[in-house]
Amino acid sequence: MSEANRLAQEMELFGIDSAYEIAVEVDEYVLNNEGESFREIVEATEEGRKSIRKQDYIRAVMHSVVDTQGGKQKVEAIIDNNMVDALNRMTPENRATLSRFNDEVAERIYYGTRDVPVKGTEAYCFWSNGSESWFCRELWNQAKQEGVARLDANELVIEADHEFLNNHRFLMKKLPLFEFSYEAGQTAGVDKRKQIKDWAFKQLESKAIQERRIPEEWL
What we know:
By secondary structure, the chain is mainly alpha-helical. It has helices spanning about 5-10, 15-30, 35-45, 45-65, 70-90, 90-105, 140-145, 160-165, 175-180, 180-185, 190-205; strands at about 115, 125-130, 135-140, 150, 155-160. It has a three-stranded antiparallel beta sheet. The chain has a two-stranded antiparallel ribbon with strand order 1-4.
């Protein structure tokens, strides 16, 4: 995967609308607003297709920014700062939801199917190796009717709003089975950014309600 596509994919973990806003920030701050005419096209697009055009804009900005000196590092800093800002705005209830999600992810260490009792109000989520991300939607009708969901090793259900989950995928831990896979071995990690992400995961478990910032020594 190219650096541009990797950065675009990482931004889209915030949901397309928030990712678009982050891309606008990158465009204005790093690229001196060179994508302004593209944004005018996006804003003029009919609602049914606007998400696709936003995704095109995000990827165009990322392809431009990786060609600028220090551009990749600036984008990563903007992404990390948006993650911290989102976490600081989050309610204790929403932090608890994501903490429960990550607890469930941590248990996905064995291959094979399993039957999980459901009430019918849960969100259904599955892990994609290609996108290196979770995706969530409503539980399917048969599971709702029968009260049982048959899940594979890369799937889970959780009592939560699926749209909220999809817009906070940047705070979801990776599937353990993926982290030990061949695909994961092809991706190089960045230690400082991993520290920031690990810090964010710890904040989800915190009971204290206070403003949180990235430790200065990490910046």
